[in-house]
Amino acid sequence: MKVIKSYDTLNDYYRKLFGEKTFKVPIDAGFDCPNRDGTVAHGGCTFCTVSGSGDAIVSPDPPIREQFYKEIDFIHRKWPDVQKYLVYFQNFTNTHEKVEVIRERYEQAINEPGVVGINIGTRPDCLPDETIEYLAELSECMHVTVELGLQTTYEATSDLINRAHSYEL
């Protein structure tokens, strides 16, 4: 019996967009968070793990390119035919650095064979104009997704979970 879904999963979306199964490859690019390093606060958000919620990363220590290939080896154990990847900079705040540093770190992975896009986890208060311009430039040659950590829109809850940014425009 075929089940008819009333929604598309992310897997469905990627299959339509890229023509085949596509995997997010989590990478630790060594970024910190302004809520941990003292830029806006200390201690981080209450929900964030020590690794910045990047617990799925197989091996966060090696250089970025090596991490990419270790992650792909891990994926290929279960899905050996996968050939398309989205580099996923997930943990901490992956735009919390000067744009030159961001560019250098991202490009260690996004130029690898099979990479069709990049997913970037960040905070809404860490997207200066020059970073947005770089991401717009990237979007001309690959799929770019920016994941903004929006755990709540209520200031009181934001304070309670130590988000350390405002929701004002």
TrEMBL record:
Q: Where is the Radical SAM core domain?
A: 43-168
A Pfam entry, by short name: Radical_SAM
Question: Per its UniProt record, what InterPro entries does this chain match?
Answer: rSAM, rSAM_sf, YhcC-like
MF terms per GO, please? catalytic activity; iron-sulfur cluster binding
Q: What is this protein called?
A: Radical SAM family protein
- This protein's species is Streptococcus pneumoniae
